[in-house]
Write a structure and sequence with these properties.
26-stranded mixed beta sheet, five-stranded mixed beta sheet, 41 strands, 56% strand
């Protein structure tokens, strides 16, 4: 499969060379190099041309979002080198973005207009409900960026910049799609988006949008039994665990239905050319459910069978869940003398964050919906950031600032008399929670050493504290724990050099340190899965740290062609990860040391303004190197981190017609810290896969655009714990006035 995909990349590159051959040199024999003056702010906290920014910087524009088959904000990053998005389908809450060979969403900082989106509870970010129509540009900067941004920025930073209109604009979008073969993908997918932007005066700007998606889903959650169906029962099939233990496939838990929506309100006021105020309120919601389960079992009379031996009706049941997040932000920027200053205030309030599970022990759940549990974990993050950028002595650009973050979370579990109704609560069975704060100062100096050589030197000091931690179990196995406050600090330096010896050549090198404090989930949360595995928090966890360096080379080739290569190394200390204690117990611990090393290669060919061909390859060797708590994990691969990723694609725009196709290869990932999960193609495995998506569209006059997309063109099926969706088509229409 990997070889076939490698052949595809090779063919694309050969084709690009042939098509561009006539443009390899200008009349004076000097190679022409296409210049792209893309501006980024994330890499340095100041506006900078991407070609001159430190670190590995990639940009996804709103034009990219239109041309490609992109249905979610995070999936827009799939084709970038060094980026791994763990998403099964466009309505999946398990999506997470990791960068630069450092696994885990909570080790990647996600920003919206400079405001952190990582939750106070887990550090994760769900981008499922965010509307791609609101996005102006996405900036991805890989490498340790705690020197500028603090915790979570170990692997890098993703900054989602949203629209602010310059003129009146009204957009209406609608789409419908479904699986190619009914029941194998997101059946009856519906999409709606409406936005209104205006600039009624030179000073005032307004933007309002609403987006909605829903689907009847497909059956992705298989029912697997450890005991063989008794004599006379048919319809089952052999399968196994991802560690080769024999199991029996007996059904599925029903079609996984979804809806999500996004409401966004932005108001901007320009007091002058240098003083600007931006306020924003965004509400994002999603909810999932399961319809009636399916048993594959039949008795001798042909009737469905839902129970035998240790298998009960509860084996076929599944719960529901919902998240509602409100993001409030205020941003003000002005100039005070020669200093450009910015002040940001924000509240990330996940007021609803619950899921229900049916009981798989006495009193057992039934198909009619009796007996379950609801777990609710609301959480909030308060955020303030002040920075000033000051030019000094004609060669320095000094950025200084301070940040404050305060988080809190609380988890409660209640019994349910009806697991399909989250409001049918009875007694409280468990609660846990805590608070944390982080105070920070940061400094960065951009030094122009030579006209073609720039140095960046900076550091950040963070003071972290967790307090008011508790965990209580009521009823059977009761306990009541409170935890002492704990604190730590982290010094995060970073230095970078950017050198342009030739117009077509850029060399970069960076080294730095980053840290991440444990989240409330990792510290205090203990829970039991539907399969009987206990996942325990650890209030004694220490912050994890990484020391990283990378070196990169970007080279213009012939006209419209560029090549880049980046080598990176990450040395992690006190890595927080799940230790598999037994088949029924998994605990968070600090592993002694871990390393990830790798290379990213990328080539791109642009032929005029009409055609773009690209391909990239990422290799990452990420392993535990020292772990006294569990020596058997030493030299094993880090969980959820693919070793190889390969992307290739083409984008075409001819007049009113546009089209794109993008292919993606991802190698196998392990979920067991000893890498024992070696079996592919079974529930619970994380298989290697090749998939490709395509989109064609046509602009109808000045105001309308129609498009047709296909996800998973080859109908490739694999497991990402759950079974992935099959081929899906989607037709969309946009009206713009």
């Amino acid at each position: 499969m990997f070889r076939r995909f490698l052949l595809l990349v090779s063919l694309l590159m050969i084709a690009s060379t042939a098509l561009a051959e006539e443009n390899t040199a200008s009349s004076d024999g000097v190679k022409n190099v296409t210049k792209f003056e893309e501006i980024v702010v994330t890499a340095t906290r100041t506006a900078k041309e991407a070609a001159s920014a430190p670190g590995n910087v990639k940009i996804v524009t709103k034009k990219d979002l239109k041309r490609k088959n992109v249905q979610t904000v995070d999936s827009a990053l799939n084709a970038l080198p060094g980026v791994f998005d763990r998403r099964v389908n466009m309505m999946d809450t398990l999506s997470s973005v990791s960068l630069g060979g450092i696994p885990g969403q909570n080790r990647t900082l996600i920003l919206q207009d400079g405001v952190p989106l990582n939750s106070a509870y887990t550090g994760d970010v769900s981008l499922t409900g965010m509307s791609t129509g609101n996005v102006e540009q996405i900036e991805v900067v890989q490498g340790p960026f705690s020197s500028l941004y603090g915790g979570y920025a170990m692997g890098g930073v993703v900054n989602i910049l949203t629209k602010m209109p310059d003129k009146r604009e009204f957009i209406v979008q609608s789409g419908y799609g479904t699986s190619w073969h009914r029941g194998e993908s997101l059946d009856d997918l519906q999409k709606y988006y409406l936005s209104y932007g205006d600039r009624p005066t030179d000073k005032l700007r307004l933007f309002l949008s609403y987006g909605y998606k829903s689907t009847n889903g497909y059956a992705k959650d298989m029912v697997v039994a450890s005991s063989k169906p008794t004599a006379g029962i048919t319809g089952w099939d052999y399968t196994s665990t991802n560690q080769r233990a024999t199991r029996y496939l007996i059904g599925d838990k029903g079609d996984n239905t979804w809806w999500d929506d996004n409401l966004n309100i932005k108001v901007g006021y320009d007091f002058s050319n240098v003083s600007k105020l931006r306020t924003s309120v965004m509400r994002t919601r999603y909810r999932y459910n399961y319809d009636d389960p399916h048993t594959y079992l039949r008795n001798a009379a042909g009737n469905p069978v839902y129970s035998y031996g240790s298998v009960r009706e509860s084996s076929f049941t599944s719960g529901s869940g919902m998240t509602e997040t409100m993001l409030y932000s205020i941003n003000y920027e002005t100039e005070i003398g020669i200093a450009k200053t910015k002040l940001s205030l924000a509240l990330n309030d996940q007021a609803k964050n619950w899921y229900t599970t049916p009981n798989t022990s006495s009193p057992y759940a039934t198909l009619s919906g009796l007996n379950g549990k609801v777990s609710s974990s609301p959480n909030q993050n308060y955020y303030a950031d002040l920075q000033a950028t000051i030019p000094l002595l004609g060669r320095h650009l000094l950025t200084v600032g301070a940040s404050y973050r305060a988080g809190r979370s609380n988890t409660e579990e209640h019994n349910l008399t009806y697991y399909k109704d989250e409001d049918s609560k009875t007694g409280l069975t468990y609660n846990s929670g805590g608070k944390d704060t982080t105070y920070s100062i940061f400094v960065q100096d951009e030094i122009s050493l030579l006209p073609n050589l720039t140095a960046y030197v900076g550091f950040r000091e963070d003071w972290w504290k967790t307090f008011d931690g508790y965990a209580n179990q009521f009823g059977t196995g009761a306990f009541a724990n409170t935890y002492d406050s704990r604190s730590d600090s982290s010094f995060s330096p970073k230095a970078s050099l950017v050198y342009k010896p030739l117009e077509a050549t850029t060399l970069r090198a960076s080294a730095g340190q980053a840290f991440r404090a444990p989240t409330m989930y990792e510290l205090y949360r203990t829970w039991v899965s539907s399969t009987g595995v206990t996942y325990s928090g650890n209030p004694g966890l220490s912050p994890e740290k990484v020391t990283s360096w990378d070196a990169g080379w970007t080279q213009g080739l012939w006209k419209g062609a560029t090549f880049s290569a980046t080598y990176f190394e990450n040395y992690l200390k006190d890595l927080i990860y799940r230790k598999t204690v037994s088949a029924t117990q998994s605990d968070y611990i600090n592993a002694g040391k871990a390393e990830s090393k790798g290379v990213m290669l990328e080539i791109e060919q642009r032929i005029g303004k009409e055609l773009k061909l690209f391909g990239n390859f990422t290799y990452t060797d990420a392993r535990i190197k020292e772990n006294n708590a569990k020596p058997t994990t030493v030299d094993k691969r880090l969980t959820y981190q693919p070793e190889r990723m390969l992307n290739a694609g083409a984008e075409l725009e001819l007049g009113s017609f546009f089209a794109s196709v993008v292919g993606r290869y991802v190698s196998k990932r392990f979920t067991d810290d000893e890498n024992k999960d070696i079996v592919d193609g079974v529930p619970g495995s994380y298989d290697s896969f090749v998939t490709a998506d395509a989109k064609i569209g046509y602009k109808i006059g000045r105001h309308a655009t129609a498009s047709f997309s296909v996800n998973n063109i080859a109908d490739e099926r694999h497991y990402e714990s759950y079974e992935s969706p099959g081929r899906l088509w989607l037709a969309e229409v946009e009206l713009k006035f």
